[in-house]
Amino acid sequence: MNWTDERVEKLKKLWSEGLSASQIAAQLGGVSRNAVIGKVHRLSLPGRAKAGGSAAAAPRTKRTTAPPRAPNYASKVATRTVARVQGATVIKEEVEVDLVAEQEFVPAANVVVPMSRRLVLTQLTERTCKWPVGDPLKDDFHFCGNDCAEAGPYCTAHARLAYQPSAERRRVR
Predict the structure, then answer these.
(1) Which of 2, 4, 52, 160 is the most buried (most CB within 10 A)?
(2) Which three-class secondary structure string do you get for the chain?
(3) What is the largest distance, in Å, between two alpha-carbon atoms of the chain?
(4) Backbone φ, ψ for residue 113 (5° rounding)
(5) What is the chain's Cα-based Rg?
(6) Of the candidates 76, 88, 81, 16, which has an alpha carbon nearest to the alpha carbon of residue 51?
(7) Using one digit for the tens of pLDDT, what is the confidence trace for 5-22?
(8) Residue pLDDT, tens place only, 93-102
(9) What does DSSP say about strands 75-86 and 142-143: parallel, antiparallel, or unpaired?
(10) Shortest CA distance to 17 belongs to which of 50, 57, 40, 55?
């Protein structure tokens, strides 16, 4: 199928009227929806008109804020002015920002971690603990390296830290 001048003009007319690519393909006949979309793209036609009125007339619903956090979070609420683009207009609005204080890590008291073998990444095997120790950007970074069970990547001490029973997780929250 060739795109004749008449078919291109009909495509432009139907596109400007807001018809979908499928509807245009059906009216033109002998052309698929994807062919219509491709031709519209090659012709650089503007986005198709929306059926049913202008977008400005549609009422906008305001977004609801997140539900309040649990009381164990120490949070502060601050307002910040944010510029937002809507169409060709920049709108300034006040937005509430939830600032959450950083919580300090408290390790489990009932876990005793044995001395690690201080292995580097290339020394790890399937049977060594892959628990990272230290800052990866520092020279003294290493992995635990103790013997681990066949079921997981960590030794028993680090497995207790990594995999907490669901009841304990609920109590911490």
Answers:
(1) 160
(2) CCCCHHHHHHHHHHHHCCCCHHHHHHHHCCCCHHHHHHHHHHHCCCCCCCCCCCCCCCCCCCCCCCCCCCCCCCEEEEEEEEEEEECCEEEEEEEEEEEECCCCCCCCCCCCCCCCCCECHHHCCCCECCCEECCCCCCCCEECCCECCCCCCCCHHHHHHHCCCHHHHHHHC
(3) 82
(4) -95, 125
(5) 31
(6) 16
(7) 999 999 899 988 889 999
(8) 666 666 666 6
(9) unpaired
(10) 50
Strand partners, 95: 80
Residue for token pair 């997140």:
66
Closest CA to 124 of 161, 78, 155: 155
Length of the chain: 173
